[in-house]
């Protein structure tokens, strides 16, 4: 899932999701200016990232997974979601750290 967080973009605040699996062999490229997340629909999963820069704690941000404005369908019931404590305290979409302009 990817959410456009580029201010002044015609798709600002809209999200796109796609199911990736070993069977369909699809991949997803998420460009700068998009927040991203995933849910695992199978008992196990391997997730591989490629990044365009080294990790920087100062650049880290996020959006709470159950944000009411975005209303993302994670394909699993919220009560069954396993979410880290770090991700449970993220801000809402309207309050998220966002340095992206279109």
Question: Care to describe what's here?
Answer:
The chain is low in regular secondary structure and 102 residues long. The protein has one domain (1-102): Jelly Rolls (Sandwich), CATH 2.60.120.10. Helix content is 4%, strand content 8%. The protein has one helix and three strands. Strands 2-1-3 form a three-stranded antiparallel β-sheet, with no helix packed on it. The longest helix is centred in the last third of the chain and has 4 residues, at 85-88. The protein is globular and about 35 Å long. It starts with a strand and ends in a 14-residue tail after the last helix.
Summary?
Strands 2-1-3 form a three-stranded antiparallel β-sheet, with no helix packed on it. It has one helix at 85-88, and strands spanning 2-4, 15-16, 34-36. The protein contains one helix and three strands, in the order E-E-E-H.
């Amino acid at each position: 899932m990817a959410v456009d967080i580029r201010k002044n973009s015609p798709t600002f605040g809209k999200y796109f999701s796609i199911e990736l699996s070993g069977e369909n062999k699809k991949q997803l490229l998420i460009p700068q200016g998009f927040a991203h997340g995933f849910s695992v629909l199978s008992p196990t999963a391997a997730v591989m990232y490629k990044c365009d820069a080294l990790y920087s704690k100062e650049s880290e941000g996020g959006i709470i997974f159950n944000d009411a404005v975005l209303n993302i369908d994670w394909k699993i019931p919220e009560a069954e979601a396993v979410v880290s404590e770090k991700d449970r305290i993220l801000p809402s979409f309207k309050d998220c750290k966002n340095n992206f302009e279109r």
